[in-house]
From TrEMBL:
Keywords for the protein's UniProt record, in alphabetical order: Membrane, Signal, Transmembrane, Transmembrane helix
Membrane-spanning segments: 430-448, 502-521, 541-562, 574-596, 602-623, 635-659
Entries under InterPro entries matching the protein: 6-blade_b-propeller_TolB-like, TPR-like_helical_dom_sf, TRIM-NHL_E3_ligases, Yip1_dom
Cellular location(s): Membrane
Membrane topology according to the record: Multi-pass membrane protein
Chief localisation class: membrane
Domain Yip1: 482-650
Signal sequence region: 1-26
Domain of life: Bacteria
Protein name: Yip1 domain-containing protein
Pfam families for the chain: Yip1 (PF04893)
Amino acid sequence: MSKMKKVIPILLAFLFLWLTDQQVIEANTAYKTFTEDGYGRYVETQTAYTVKQTIVKFDDELFKQAADLKIGKDGLFYIADSGNQRILVGNKNEELVRVIGKDILKKPNGLFLSHDDKLYVADEVAAKIFVFSLEGELLKEFGKPDSILFGKKEPFVPEKVAVDKRDNIYIISRGNSNGIIQINANNGDFIGYFAPNQTVVSPLTAFRKAIFTEEQLSKMIDSIPATAKNINLDEKGLVYTVSQGEKVEAIRKLNVGGKNIIETDVYDPFPVSIETGSLENIFVAGENGFIYEYTSEGNLLFVFGGRDDGRQRVGLFSKISAVALDEKDQIYALDPEKNQIQVFQPTEFANLVHTALRLYQNGDYQASKAPWEEVIKLNSLFDFANLGLGEAYFKEENYKEALASFRLAKYKTGYSDAFWEIRNEWMRKYIIHFLVLIIGLVVMKKILDWVEKKYQFWHRFKQKVTKKYEFKLVKDLLFLKNLLRHPLDSFYRIKHENKTSVLSATVLMFLFFIIFILEKYFSGFIFRFVKDGVFEIGSDFAFVIAAFLLTIISNYLICTINDGESTFSHMYSGFIYSFAPYFIFKPFLILISNVLTFNEVYLLNLANFLIYTWIAVLLFLMIMELNDYTIRETFKIIFLTLFLMLITALLLFIVYVLISQMIQFVISVFNEGVYRVENG
């Protein structure tokens, strides 16, 4: 017993030191790990993968410009050793098993292991797809399809290859923008092109196509969609591709019909390889050395790695050409310049995230809550954990907790769904009380109207106050409601009876700013476009005041040189008073937006459309009435005003740039002078 008392503290101390050492190892990686928050921004998180091993050769066979990597069912590595014109097959002990394709292959660039244990090799120099047995016997080879549907002038430079369970070969050919080439693996017949990338048409290009003649369009450079960079398939037969230079759908998960079924907001600009894991998670490697892990639905879990600066640090790359995963979800990343494979193993944090994700995907929502909560304890900024926790609560019909979790995750769709359920429950519980309250208010209003009509208490009170006090500013502000009922008459009275003033218009302009701030920062969460905790009141104020003054002054100057009859004070008042629908109705929409969901978003959009259309009509009538213009002249004035505003904005921007450069020059000269003085 006494010996045990001595041994236990030693074991505990050893365990403590071992755990501390493990944490230090994870914390001192040469790279950082990031995840995506609810706004699509990178936030740092715990290390998700650490380097376990580095493979530089199989026995004495080194790699040279290795282009691709696959891992077989038996755990063997198949490496497209492009520089040595061969396929190397080795095991995890770095032992060479065999060499495939020697004296046959020219430049093997892509590999794929088929469901029937065959090795497909895309050779871009030989311009063929070679099919080998896993023992290295050449079984078949496929060249350029001779079908007229393929196209006589279309290039066939196979870079990557994949094969589905129906024996359809998918080939990526460099420079062929028609899509992924499909060939039948049994007879070599050309099946067709699959899922071509879409061309991203800029607004300028669309405008040119609308106004240019056919001859002019023929001289323009055609917008050719990018060719996919790599391809892979999962067990379900879904096709995954990555493309470079694409602003849209750089990562695609394609169904049988060639339709992309995922969307990713965060992706590498130069993806080169794509692979799937045991959870159907998607792993993408970027050419610049970063590795991304997404869920099967396209949510970013982790991104890590990066480019090595020449110090040969573990976990960083000169370049990545391929990425592969084994049955334990260990990541194998191939570096063709360092000529090595770095093996990454998941950390406890990554395993915790994967455990929660696995339980949720299997429908065990109750069990998934505990690991999600543990992830949040370890990193409160890991928004995907809040999203997963919210989904688990929602499946359990615990909508209040789901609402809170979705709010933390900034997940508007889930928040809307949870709020819909909570609102329905509230309405079922209190709908009778609500109706009674409405009926009571209506009855009360009827009674007050009857009393006022008979005894005129309120009317007499207003008359006494009006006689005793002369509130010119209040009268001017209340004139706002006349714009809604009699706009032409109101603009006439502004011009000839001075029913408004510069002071009242300025007060309304500040009221506009207050409503603008309320809409921007205090609308319902699902209709708000600003990030939580971000307040830019100063810049908002400058923007609103500058926009008003620039528009009013530009319009006044244009009207002045076009025989306009309005004074600046009338133009100033008329312009601001034309926003009457905004002042009167917008506050109600801001309040209502806090109790609406995405199911009623059309109501909010319709109301906003009517408000802004109403304002546009009032502005048009204001310019026409105050300046005594015809409808045609008014359109001309509006166009010239917009043009002047554009020119003014460009001039102000140029002045800003020149002043900024002058300030930077003065600062650099001052710093240079200080440096020379200090260094003699």
